[in-house]
Amino acid sequence: MPFSQNYKVTDRNLALELVRVTEAAAISSAAWTGRGKKNDADGAAVQAMRTAFDTVAIEGTVVIGEGEMDEAPMLYIGEKVGAGGPAMDIAVDPLEGTNLCAKDMPNAMTMVALAEKGNFLHAPDIYMQKLVVGPNLPDDLIDLDAPIEQTLKDLAKAKGRDVSELTMCALDRERHEELIARAREAGARVMLLTDGDVAAAIAACIDDSSVDIYAGSGGAPEGVLAAAAVRCVGGQMQGRLLFEDDSQVERARSMAPDKDPTRKLGLHDMARGDVLFSATGVTSGTLLRGVRYTGPSRARTHSIVMRSKSGTVRFIEGRHDFSTKTWAGR
């Protein structure tokens, strides 16, 4: 049966199954919050997420994951997951913000996106230049090649506000010093993050967020996950892969032989078709509350689940007895 037909039957339950996957990773990694051991936190998230996928009614292939087969024991690119069902591509970040979790800082979260097979950009583990604004704005408002001053001016006009009332979010990196300085010179506020640019991209698309625009460069795999989320809420996003040497260019070309690897990427170049996205907070941040332990065997989680076809955004609070869950540990 074609994916589009079968999906109409399974999508509502599938959304809840996705939440269980991100909840599993969040609860397991949260046990390492503030312990200074980012690799242990990441390993716990990977293990729990991989185990939870065994119950999801899909025939999934990881296209954005923990690395190549020889680099990661599970959730590696090309790994097959799921209990059987419609063929789908999977993009995962079992723990975005491993340092944030290790240091008990805001915005660590776990995330998964699903799309029909072939509908996610196969992005190598390099940097991507990104620009994101929210929904209900004029089409083609943003242009990655436009000066940030012009982008802020156009965004302010579209929102009926002054540039001084806008907040741009960016990662606090040396490579962004000029971008940050120019945005401030134009009059905008700038919110700086140490890690976690997917959360920032989503925040730029949420009505009650303080973020109006996300700009700068971060990981390309995270760019695909951000694109999936932005698709679900009707925002706008552009991206471009940033290469350091010819070997990276050839790697990107091998993933999409018929495409120019240096091209400017539109939102649908990164995430096409009907997309589902789920994320669960590990530490509290701008988008989600973190895992909160309420007893020796209980925890509460806060998740967001979105679907591009309906545009529905759900915030879900889960209450768990993880002593009965095989994927959870403290």
TrEMBL record:
<feature type="binding site">
    <location>
        <position position="96"/>
    </location>
    <ligand>
        <name>Mn(2+) 2</name>
    </ligand>
</feature>
<dbReference type="GO" id="GO:0006071">
    <property type="term" value="P:glycerol metabolic process"/>
</dbReference>
<keyword id="KW-0119">Carbohydrate metabolism</keyword>
<feature type="binding site">
    <location>
        <position position="93"/>
    </location>
    <ligand>
        <name>Mn(2+) 2</name>
    </ligand>
</feature>
<comment type="similarity">
    <text>Belongs to the FBPase class 2 family.</text>
</comment>
<protein>
    <recommendedName>
        <fullName>Fructose-1,6-bisphosphatase</fullName>
    </recommendedName>
</protein>
<feature type="binding site">
    <location>
        <position position="42"/>
    </location>
    <ligand>
        <name>Mn(2+) 1</name>
    </ligand>
</feature>
<feature type="binding site">
    <location>
        <begin position="173"/>
        <end position="175"/>
    </location>
    <ligand>
        <name>substrate</name>
    </ligand>
</feature>
<keyword id="KW-0479">Metal-binding</keyword>
<keyword id="KW-0464">Manganese</keyword>
<dbReference type="GO" id="GO:0042132">
    <property type="term" value="F:fructose 1,6-bisphosphate 1-phosphatase activity"/>
</dbReference>
<dbReference type="GO" id="GO:0030145">
    <property type="term" value="F:manganese ion binding"/>
</dbReference>
<keyword id="KW-0378">Hydrolase</keyword>
<feature type="binding site">
    <location>
        <position position="127"/>
    </location>
    <ligand>
        <name>substrate</name>
    </ligand>
</feature>
<dbReference type="GO" id="GO:0030388">
    <property type="term" value="P:fructose 1,6-bisphosphate metabolic process"/>
</dbReference>
<dbReference type="Pfam" id="PF03320">
    <property type="entry name" value="FBPase_glpX"/>
</dbReference>
<dbReference type="InterPro" id="IPR004464">
    <property type="entry name" value="FBPase_class-2/SBPase"/>
</dbReference>
<feature type="binding site">
    <location>
        <begin position="195"/>
        <end position="197"/>
    </location>
    <ligand>
        <name>substrate</name>
    </ligand>
</feature>
<feature type="binding site">
    <location>
        <position position="222"/>
    </location>
    <ligand>
        <name>Mn(2+) 2</name>
    </ligand>
</feature>
<feature type="binding site">
    <location>
        <position position="219"/>
    </location>
    <ligand>
        <name>substrate</name>
    </ligand>
</feature>
<dbReference type="GO" id="GO:0006094">
    <property type="term" value="P:gluconeogenesis"/>
</dbReference>
<dbReference type="GO" id="GO:0005829">
    <property type="term" value="C:cytosol"/>
</dbReference>
<feature type="binding site">
    <location>
        <begin position="96"/>
        <end position="98"/>
    </location>
    <ligand>
        <name>substrate</name>
    </ligand>
</feature>
<feature type="binding site">
    <location>
        <position position="66"/>
    </location>
    <ligand>
        <name>Mn(2+) 1</name>
    </ligand>
</feature>
